[in-house]
Specification:
Blueprint lengths: L9 E2 L3 E4 L6 H8 L13 H19 L3 E6 L5 E9 L10 E7 L8 H16 L4 E6 L4 H9 L3 E2 L5 E2 L11 E8 H7 L2
Parallel strand pairs: 5-6
Antiparallel strand pairs: 1-2, 2-3, 3-4, 4-5, 6-9, 7-9, 8-9
The chain binds coenzyme A.
């Protein structure tokens, strides 16, 4: 794993997590316009879909040394999606906390890329940033994302379920399940 300030790259067997470049903007916009990818996510504003979200990740990287990185496949440099770590931006019973998240372009689903990229991001979070815990959240219906959480050996306690304060009351995405992985648990699992 190399880390050179904001030019850092996190490498896994098939993938690299790296800062965003201009060539990512169109594939990111295409992924964000895909209804199946966005099924359980709040829609991006036109500003965010056309680059504002990417700009914000680069700012997070400067400020926090972490962000949702662009994920590139090593074999052909194709854009795979966005996976990364961010300080949770709202207040809830489990904050302050750092969350992990993922979205993968549909053409690349089912190849284990999200768990592979997430494992690399988790290693970075625990080994380089010395985080004590990483959390993840989604709606209960998002089975695909919960499968990724399970593959990462993150665990859910139903008493941690919460109403997302940034999502309006009555919205179908407001109630969320929370998964956790502590550095201590991760170290006991690591080969
Ligand atoms: C969740 C997501 C990142 C998983 O990425 P991935 O690289 O496909 O992950 P995996 O290959 O490990 O597959 C995870 C699960 O997705 C489901 N899945 C995989 N390929 C699929 C496909 N082509 N169609 C439907 N479901 C599929 C399976 O349930 C799979 O679990 P399994 O391996 O136990 O069968 C991806 O589905 C995605 O981007 N979803 C939309 C964005 C999103 O919801 N992000 C999370 C917000 S909290």
């Amino acid at each position: 794993m190399e880390r050179t300030e904001v030019n850092m790259r996190i490498s896994s067997e098939r993938l690299v997590l790296r800062p965003w470049i201009a060539a990512d903007r169109q594939p990111f916009a295409d992924m964000s316009a895909d209804r199946e990818v966005m099924e359980y996510l709040m829609p991006l504003s036109p500003h965010d879909a056309s680059g504002g979200w990417i700009d914000r990740q680069l700012e997070h990287l400067q400020e926090h040394g972490m962000c949702f990185w662009a994920v590139e496949r090593k074999s052909d440099q194709s854009f795979v999606g966005a996976v990364g770590l961010l300080p949770v931006s709202y207040t809830a019973h489990f904050t302050p906390a750092v969350e992990i998240g993922w979205r993968i372009a549909r053409a690349h689903w089912g190849k284990g890329y999200a768990p592979e990229a997430a494992r690399a991001a988790i290693r970075f979070g625990f080994e380089e940033l010395d985080l004590s815990e990483i959390v993840a959240n989604t709606v209960a219906e998002n089975v695909k994302s919960r499968r990724v959480m399970a593959k990462l050996e993150m665990t859910r306690d139903a008493s941690d379920d919460f109403d997302h304060p940034r999502i309006p009351e009555g919205h179908s995405l407001r109630r969320q399940v929370l998964y956790r992985l502590t550095q201590k648990q991760w170290r006991s699992l690591a080969p």
